[in-house]
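Q: Start with the shorter request: fold the first protein.
A: Done. Sequence, then structure:
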Amino acid sequence: MYKKIEELAKKYAPSVTEWRHAIHSCPELSEQEEKTAALVAEVLTGLGLDVRKNVGGHGVVGLLKGAQDGKTVGLRADMDALPMLEETGLPFASKTSGVMHACGHDTHTAMLLGTACVLSELKADIKGSVKFIFQPAEELNPTGGAPGMIKDGVLENPHVDAIFALHVWPGFETGKVATRSGAQMGASDRLFLTVSGKTAHGSAPHQGIDGIMIAAQVVGGLQTIVSRTVAPVDSAVVSIGTIKGGYRYNVLADKVEMEGTVRTLRAETQDKMPALIEKIAKGYAQSLGGDATVKYVKGYPPTINAPELFELVKEIVPASIGEGSLIVPDSPDLGGEDFSFFSRERDCLMAWLGCRSVGQPMSETPVLHNTKFNPDEGCFPYGMRFLASCAVGYLGKRG
């Protein structure tokens, strides 16, 4: 079966590349994925699948029923782009100014379409069903697009037993697949912090309360949460991304607004972060005569890979892609992924698909969310082989 999958992946690779170029040149932001969804629905309908549109927004779901009854496995890809100005210079670069597929969702969508083609040709050998889940709004933190699809019943009719997904990853070379048991990616929360002070002339700071000076102290103080409150064997990140405040060069600011992100790996650590941040912010601000308010918005939970699926993948990847193709990272990544909402409902596994050209130094490779990000298209057949093999392998053992 794996040999058939390999041959079919090669057969459909040109189509996957064509779809990727079409999607990449017409990127759509979260909740605006109309053209991408239309392309997906057209391809799935052409394969004779049962197709549902407008699932959780612009989500599309295709159902492939195997020749024999059995369980149902889900394969998921995300479709939305980012509000970034592309600088790749590619002939199929974004035609929409300020919008770009800088996170590889165009490749995920194209590879899953290719996987649908591969598995459609193997329908007679499939025991059970495969549900192809094309999800909108993955970048829409803290809401995400997965909860809307779950609410609209994507995991039912038929009941989905397990879900696999992949994400292109420039940290690994093409031909490699990286995954692990347990936490694969971190929780991603939003932080809104406002410091209040009192205006005064810059020449007489004693007559006011310097909001900018307080903000500087708060930013530094927040790092003690990670270094002195979170256990060294645990992981957490508190980063302030924006600071806005002040009226004029010689006037003390009475209000400074900050936004940031908080990343954690364990639910217990995530739960205690709001109180710790508020205690630090208020403590510094009040000790200097001001005050601080904190709004903490929980976003994506950690993405957790089911140990049982990881054990299955440890068998499947070497057999389907080759010995040495599987990498088991020592630690997860603190980037957020709303695939995590699926992993709270069903057994799930997310894998990172190597997309850096073999031999190319990492120092010369644009990373995710970079204006020049362009994954090696040679990874497409490997992505299809991984997804198709996981579906067939899971149903073969569970179907």
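Q: Next, the second protein, separately.
A: Sequence, then structure:
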Amino acid sequence: MAYGSRVSQLSFFSAESTPPAVVDLGGLLAGTGQAVTSDAGARVSVVVEDGWRAEALAQMIDEAGVPVETTRSDEGRPLVRTHSVEQLRPLVGQWTRGAVKAVPHGWVPTSRQLRMWTIACGRAEAEGTRFVLGLDPHAPQTHGPLARCLMHAGIAPTLIGTRGATPGLRIAGRRRLARLAESVGEPPPHMDVEGAWPYA
């Protein structure tokens, strides 16, 4: 399969050119990540399809200074979760309304948030001519707002699969794919990129 040319030069907007931060974990909540709060603080977790995704996310979370562990879900899939810590409480508060996931007002994803989103639940379609950022099927109220947020980031998507188990934001067209690829940077090392990473 042909996936186009790889981005070989770091962009000013690339995830690889910006320092890690706790807010990066907002990229998980934009996708299929979940958050809970307790007396000890707040926790963010996400179930992923592949071991490399779990490994790459754990590394990014650790770089952001948040304690993290990898384990398995009840269904045996890779699970990445932070510890319950106070430093995550503000972020989780921004992404919830009561006990319901909500998109923060005016949110525009940063390059590192887009990278986390891509690692957690991104997938290529049609031999790399389209790319989909996964959405939370249990939080349909976030789908439309997230489409608008991505548009404000310069990547206009199409909302797909809203009635199914794998909703997402589809990105098509060379310019839009190039913008996404430029933002998220190079794929994590030692991974099979075919079908899992955007390229211009």
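Q: Describe the second briefly.
A: Residues 15-184 form a domain with the Endonuclease I-creI fold (CATH 3.10.28.10). The chain has a mean pLDDT of 90.
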